[in-house]
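Sorry to interrupt, but I need a hand with the structure work. Could you write out one complete protein record for me, on any chain you like? Could you add the entry underneath, on a fresh line?
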Amino acid sequence: MLRCCSLIAALIVVGLTTVQACADRRVALVIGNSEYREIPALKNPDKDAEDVSNTFRLAGFDVFVAKDLTKLQFEKELSRGDGGW
């Protein structure tokens, strides 16, 4: 539960930061990863990512979702944000 709340809080911060950076367009990148090296696999990241994405969409964001990314894939998704999303 704590990890889920932390994820949601982080996504809200990212979303709010995005709003300030580009007032004309509200964009959110939602990432749902289920497995990590240092902690046990999460039970429901797909559903969590879907719920968070829907919440951002309802708030007027353009939402981009990525799931089960490696570090390299994550960095690639973030760099796409410079013009891709």
About this structure: The CA atoms of residues 40 and 77 lie 24 Å apart. The first strand starts at residue 27 and ends at 32. Helices lie at 2-21, 45-58, 71-80.
